[in-house]
Amino acid sequence: MRRARWFGVLFAVVILLVGGLASVVRGQPESRVPRFITDDEGRALILHGLNTASSAKSTPDAMPDLSEDDVEREYRDMGTNFVRFLIQWRAVEPRPGEYDEDYLDKVAERVSWYEKRGYHVMLDMHQDLYGPGVTAKGDVGNGAPRWATETDGLPVSAQEQWELYYLEPGVVRAFDNFWGAASDATLMRHYAKAWGEVADRFADADAVLGYDLMNEPWGGSVQGAAFESGPLAELYRLSIDEIRDVDADSWIFLEPQAVGVNWGLPSALPAVDDPRRGENRIAFAPHLYPLPMDLGDDYATVKGEVDAAMTTWSDNVLRTAQRLDAPVVLGEFGLDATRPGALDYVESVADLADATGMGWSYWSNDPGGWGPYDEDGKASPLVKTLDRAYPRAVAGTPTAIDSDADSLTLTFRGDPDVKAPTEIYLPRGFGDGGELDCDGCQSDWDADRRVLSVATVADDEQHTITVTAK
Ligand code: 9MR
């Protein structure tokens, strides 16, 4: 662990230097996202939620361990309005060209649980280490169907840390064959068509906000800019075309290469076209896993390095978002929340998201140390940390959000076309409706949903709303 620690520190320094140099070369970083995802009323959405769930990776029917009561409990305890819901290619297309409608029915049933509670759902085509077919036992990867897994007989040896499987020859080869090493894009086309099937099913589902095209992409033997601007961008184009044939309105969430970018290195992902009529609906959905903590250090001991890596990560993410002209949702961040300093880290990330205008989904809601509940369903202190006051829908463009345990300040530029009120979720600690301070606004408190609706004048002026606990 000592060596790992020094490696982590060294890496943080390298990332800082690269980030610093990049600033010199490319100018001052952006401090806010370039735009927001909006709802049907034109309000900017701020998304707070959890990944649901890692358990879906390995169950035979690819369903997460989740009941409607769990969704209800999450809403009551943490006031989330968003879920990154894991789906699996192996379940969508169990045999080449055959799509499993029963599977999509089950996903739709779960989506309806969220819909009843006003959630926005992002469907995430999850994979880790390509798919279960990278080993005979099927105990390593998840995502791709076996029929689409071609390791060419190369070995995949046991690893202690799961990410290290990415370097195993059989896993690298499976990815190379997927990306079309022999300039044959058959598997990518299957994947894109599978997305078309999913989009066809969910195009009219109000709760489904959009599609996260691939979890944590890995280029196999092609890495970095060559990967992101080559095969990855090509997969995105193919998938977007299939989706747009059947669904003009859902958002498309793009992830960068995970390795390196999750730590804070810049992404070279190019802007990709959205063939829909009107403004593009392409969003950026990177992950954040600072390396020192990935290697096992606690936030309490490496806070300085991690905070610096977070700043670099944020600068780089905002630059990419600018290039893509995309809203940002931090699709994953998370850690063993029982470790020293872990809750401070979660709070720092949520503060960073508020400061920059990003949405977030915590990894993950699975029971255990990383999750909000233990195996017996007992709430951990993480529940309280994730239960933050936040504006869910803003009648204009948010310019600053500052949230803590007993106050929330939102500043936004109004929009004359947006007539619906700003909606603010308040945790129980705020009391009923909190103490509201704003200029000439009208408010309404929904005690059941714990949502304060605040109607301001629809103009293009700057508005500030402050709510304090009472
Ligand atoms: O937390 C997950 C761990 O239990 C699994 O062994 C591993 C491999 O499937 O995946 C972990 O979840 C990861 C997610 O799939 C992708 N982003 C990083 C997550 C945490 O490591």
TrEMBL record:
<dbReference type="GO" id="GO:1901136">
    <property type="term" value="P:carbohydrate derivative catabolic process"/>
</dbReference>
<keyword id="KW-0378">Hydrolase</keyword>
<keyword id="KW-0326">Glycosidase</keyword>
<comment type="similarity">
    <text>Belongs to the glycosyl hydrolase 5 (cellulase A) family.</text>
</comment>
<feature type="domain" description="Glycoside hydrolase family 5 C-terminal">
    <location>
        <begin position="388"/>
        <end position="467"/>
    </location>
</feature>
<dbReference type="GO" id="GO:0004553">
    <property type="term" value="F:hydrolase activity, hydrolyzing O-glycosyl compounds"/>
</dbReference>
<dbReference type="GO" id="GO:0016042">
    <property type="term" value="P:lipid catabolic process"/>
</dbReference>
<dbReference type="InterPro" id="IPR041036">
    <property type="entry name" value="GH5_C"/>
</dbReference>
<dbReference type="InterPro" id="IPR013780">
    <property type="entry name" value="Glyco_hydro_b"/>
</dbReference>
<feature type="domain" description="Glycoside hydrolase family 5">
    <location>
        <begin position="48"/>
        <end position="367"/>
    </location>
</feature>
<dbReference type="GO" id="GO:0000272">
    <property type="term" value="P:polysaccharide catabolic process"/>
</dbReference>
<dbReference type="InterPro" id="IPR001547">
    <property type="entry name" value="Glyco_hydro_5"/>
</dbReference>
<dbReference type="Pfam" id="PF00150">
    <property type="entry name" value="Cellulase"/>
</dbReference>
<protein>
    <submittedName>
        <fullName>Glycoside hydrolase family 5</fullName>
    </submittedName>
</protein>
<dbReference type="Pfam" id="PF18564">
    <property type="entry name" value="Glyco_hydro_5_C"/>
</dbReference>
<dbReference type="InterPro" id="IPR052066">
    <property type="entry name" value="Glycosphingolipid_Hydrolases"/>
</dbReference>
<dbReference type="InterPro" id="IPR017853">
    <property type="entry name" value="GH"/>
</dbReference>
